[in-house]
Amino acid sequence: MINFLSNWAKNIELAVVITSILEMILPNNKTKKYIKMVMGTYIIFCIISPFLKKEININDFKMEEYAQNTSSIEINQESMNKRINELYIEELEKNIKKKVEEQGYVVNECNVDATIADNVQNTKINKITLDVEVGENKEQKDEVEDKLLVEIQKIKKINTNDKTEKKENELTETQKKDLKKFLKEEYEVNEKCLVIT
């Protein structure tokens, strides 16, 4: 291999030297550009000629390696498809959370179970699970904090036996129905797929 490369380099050097000498000797006339083109072709031929002489043997190709590379590409394609599906579900969850928050709610958690197929007709949302609270703007929040501070100062005894107490930010049944209706229209899902807590 080293002999091949050294012979190849010597041939290229010889071609460049010959063309340089000929270019210096040539007179400046109309034919000079055509002679330069022929010399450039000669240099290109010297560069590629060793590769043209080499015979190509089909047995030199290793088909087993090619087959193994193809199978690894298929495996990588499967992992890429899986990652694309995960990204689709993540983006869908972010989109749902954003749209629900635009409706004035606070979304603590959003989980989506979706079947993703190659065609759009078979791709569907199986289940949307939301943990939602009633949202409030900053002024309302400050007002509530002030009221809580006053109430805490008034409290003398805490009744720990009352476990049926309802959370202040919990959604009413009407709000849950409205939110389900909104999600049903927005994402074209069945109401049975929606779980709002």
Can you describe this structure in just a few lines?
The chain has 197 residues and is of the alpha+beta class. It has two domains: 2-54; 89-158 and 166-196, no CATH class. The protein is built from five helices and three strands.
Task: Report on this structure.
This protein has five helices and three strands. With 197 residues, the protein is of the alpha+beta class. It has two domains: 2-54; 89-158 and 166-196, no CATH class. It has a three-stranded mixed β-sheet with strand order 1-2-3, with helices on one face. A hairpin with an 8-residue loop joins strand 1 and strand 2 (124-134). Helix 1 (2-25) packs antiparallel against helix 2. Mean pLDDT is 76; it is low at 160-165.
Average per-residue pLDDT, rounded, comes to 76
Model regions low in confidence, pLDDT < 50 over at least 5 residues: 160-165
**Strand content bin:** 5-15%
Q: What string, H for helix and E for strand, traces the elements in order?
A: HHHEEHHE
Radius of gyration, Cα only, in angstroms? 38 Å
Largest sheet: 3 strands, mixed
Counting DSSP E segments of at least 2 residues, the number of strands comes to 3
Helix content: 55-70%
Number of helices: 5
Shape: elongated
Distance between the termini: 74 Å
